[in-house]
Each structure stands twice: as structure tokens, then as C-alpha cells.
Amino acid sequence: MIQTSIVYGNSIQTGRWALAHCVNGLAARGADRIRAAALFQVPAQQGNKELYEQKKEWKKMAGNLPLFSACRIALEAEVQTLKSPALLLPCAAVTAEAEASVDFGPGTPAAGEEILMTGFAGQEGMLRIAKERREILAARFAPSFLRLVERGADQIFAPDSALFALYGGASSALHVGEGGVFGALWELARRTGAGLEADLKKIPVLQETVEVCELFHINPYQLTSAGCFLMTAPDGEALREKLETAGIRAAVIGRLRPDRDKILRNGEEIRYIDRPAPDEIGKLWERERQEE
């Protein structure tokens, strides 16, 4: 199995975000042995300092990755670097190869199965916003709030959540990642060929994510969410209890339907999930270009 992720931004942690997307995406497919390599690119007008800082951060991360119960990760310490006249922002491209000890197959969820979610909607995006727009946040929020935002940095790596779910009887697992929870719900329906209904109020989201997103007029449910997964299971509550026993917070947020409708409930209000839109994180740079 191979997966590639590309993340844009000015933070020296773009490689970290890209790696998290690869690791989690592969774990959702059953991979438990992962090796990754990185390519860092910056706009041609930028100096070598940015590339040096990216390489330094990657090597530092290679020796200090979170430990997981069900997954082993190794990083190629040497990285490729490139200056490109086509880029407006620096970017990190991470490619990961993986093997799985158990073949879980493609998964064939059936109508009526319940949908579970682990992790928090938009948490990764909130962390990236905090790195990209720290001065704005520091002018608005107290230092204690910023510490609260940053405490979840390791939670964007969550391969155990997917692997424990698959071993625990989940019929499928899907990493949320880019496009946020709304995009992942649409993709889940596409993959299964079924409709679905989900309860917005049951989708886990941190209060600090809500506040950061409100400041930048960003929808947290359409914001990149590395470390967040959707799973399907015939008995969602039973799987939730297994995950909770393993220390993995999970919530049953909906179920698959026998038709093709993609329904989102918010109290008495009902709306239909639209086709995935561009990830909300892009708004940071769209507004920046408009102000120039």
C-alpha cells in the first residue's frame, strides 16, 4: 500500500501534518507497518533557511514520534528539497509505504449499520491555524487558551483508533483528513453505495476549535481533520465500548440508509450533505491574497 499527502503552509511542521495524513489513511486500510519519506519545496524567491528548518524539523520528528500499540512507523531521515518558481507557498509532500499483518479486505458495510467517529472535527486544522496565524490568536486569546489549543498536537496521529476498530469488528474505517467531516461523510456514502444520516450535535468538536474557527469565519466540519476517523459497524454501541476500553474516545453519530439520501440532522432541522467543497484551511491564504 502506498499513500501520498501534500500540505501547504508557512509552518515548519508541514511535514508533520502530511505524515499524519499518510499514517492515518494507511491505518484505515489495515496497515500496521509504515515507512515514510519527505520532499520539501519552497517558492524560488525564498532562501535556503526555510528548507533547512523543514529538514531539521523532520529529522527531529523522526526520533520523537508518538508510540502506538498496534502500529510501527519509521521515517527516512534524509529528505529531498527543491525550490520551485511555480509555488506561492512552501509545501511538504510525504509518501508512505505500508504492509498489513492482517488483510481486512475492502469492507462491505450494509444499510442499517451505525456510523461511529473517533477524534475531533477540525482539530488538526485548528492546530495549523494556530501555527500560521499565531500573532492574531495571541492578540485575541489568553496564553492559557493557546496552550489548550496546542495540547492536542500528538492526537493528529491516531493509527491505533482505526486498527483497534478493525480488529474490534468494524466493517470499514475511513480517515477524515482533508475536506473535514462533511467531506468524509460524502465519501463514506460513495464508497458504500448507500445513503446515510448523521446527527450534527453528536459529532465531537472541541470548544477551542469552534472559537478559533469563528474568528476566521471557517466551518470546523469542513476543516482538515487528521487523526479523526469514521467507522461503520452493525452494533455501533458495542464497538464504541470496545474502543473506550482501549482508551479511544468514540461516538455513534448516525447510520447508513438503504436509499441514496445523505441527511444531516441538527435538532429538528434537516439538510442534505453537499458534494465536498475545498478544505476551509485554504481561506487563510485566499484572504491574504485578496488583501494584497
UniProtKB/TrEMBL annotation:
Pfam families: AIRS_C. Residues 168-261 form the PurM-like C-terminal domain. InterPro entries: HypE, PurM-like_C_dom, PurM-like_C_sf. One of its GO terms (biological process) is protein maturation. Gene3D superfamilies: PurM-like C-terminal domain (3.90.650.10). This is PurM-like C-terminal domain-containing protein.
